[in-house]
From TrEMBL:
Gene3D superfamilies: ATP-grasp fold, B domain (3.30.470.20), Phosphorylase Kinase, domain 1 (3.30.200.20). Pathway: Purine metabolism; IMP biosynthesis via de novo pathway; 5-amino-1-(5-phospho-D-ribosyl)imidazole-4-carboxamide from 5-amino-1-(5-phospho-D-ribosyl)imidazole-4-carboxylate: step 1/2. It is an enzyme of class 6 (ligase). The keyword ATP-binding applies. InterPro entries: SAICAR_synt/ADE2_N, SAICAR_synt_PurC, SAICAR_synth, SAICAR_synthetase, SAICAR_synthetase_CS. Belongs to the SAICAR synthetase family. It comes from the Bacteria. Residues 6-232 form the SAICAR synthetase/ADE2 N-terminal domain. This is Phosphoribosylaminoimidazole-succinocarboxamide synthase. Keywords: ATP-binding, Ligase, Nucleotide-binding, Purine biosynthesis. It catalyses: 5-amino-1-(5-phospho-D-ribosyl)imidazole-4-carboxylate + L-aspartate + ATP = (2S)-2-[5-amino-1-(5-phospho-beta-D-ribosyl)imidazole-4-carboxamido]succinate + ADP + phosphate + 2 H(+). Its EC number is 6.3.2.6.
Length: 240
């Protein structure tokens, strides 16, 4: 497998072509950004931690029958994935009130929700990824209502698996963001990453944060929090 030309560089990952037409080479970066890129730092080891954690979570979901673009881990910081056309929506699932939901509805952070909720945000940096309704998504032609039903169903299925997995590790899965893509055959496939960059993960006993809020809110070492997640998932400890 050969790494080809750089196709795209995002805030946390670089995507390269490969010698296989329908496969892409993902390289995680050590960069951390928040507030739509306003806060930015390079944090040594973050690429490795997110790549390891994301690989473990995608592999776990695959074992549970939830397919994704993930093919295999290529190195400490790289993955091979199936090529998809990303649907321009961020699909956020929430089990506990936190972050923007707390601000938007004036609900106290930490309040458990009776049932999980799913929200859609339009992926557009210039607009700051706004929360969108089904009607907004229709006029933006971002996805059909049938697609939205599939995204919601897949997000809830991922939530069920991950809530159970993290619960066994004494961690609360507060909320998380997923992205999906379309394959050449038109199938909707889970894509992007699932990591402490894209999830809120709290210790069940102490509510200690092990996620990107450590960086967003200056709550402590991001690497130490992410390493705790990797360790509890059974991954290797960071020696570099
Ligand atoms: O900020 P907010 O409360 O809406 O975030 C909900 C969840 O989605 C959090 O787990 C956050 O890390 C994730 N998220 C993300 N990328 C974004 C926005 C939110 O991964 N652009």
């Amino acid at each position: 497998m050969e790494k080809g030309v750089l196709l795209y560089e995002g805030k946390a990952k670089k995507i390269y072509q490969t010698s296989e037409e329908n496969q892409l080479w993902v390289s995680y970066k050590d960069d951390a950004t928040a507030f739509n890129g306003e806060k930015k730092e390079t944090l040594a080891g973050k690429a490795r931690l997110n790549n390891e954690i994301s690989s473990l979570l995608f592999a776990h979901l695959q074992k549970s029958g939830i397919e994704s673009h993930f093919i295999k881990k290529l190195s400490e910081t790289e993955q091979l994935v199936q090529k998809v056309e990303i649907i321009p929506l961020e699909v956020v699932t929430r089990n506990i009130v936190a972050g923007s939901l707390s601000k938007r509805l004036g609900m106290e952070e930490g309040t458990p929700l009776k049932t999980p909720i799913v929200e859609f945000y339009y992926k557009d940096d210039d607009l700051g990824d706004p929360l969108v309704t089904e009607d907004h998504i229709a006029i933006l032609e971002a996805a059909s209502s049938e697609d939205l039903a599939v995204l919601r169903e897949k997000a809830i299925a991922v939530n069920e698996q991950l809530v159970t997995l993290f619960d066994e590790l004494n961690i609360r899965l507060v909320d998380f963001k997923l992205e999906f893509g379309r394959t050449d055959d038109g199938e909707i496939l889970l894509a992007d990453e699932i990591s402490p960059d894209t999830c809120r993960l709290w210790d069940k006993d102490t509510n200690q944060r092990f996620d990107k809020d450590l960086f967003r809110r200056n709550l402590g070492s991001l690497q130490e929090g992410y390493q705790e997640i990797l360790t509890r998932l059974g991954g290797a400890s960071c020696t570099k």
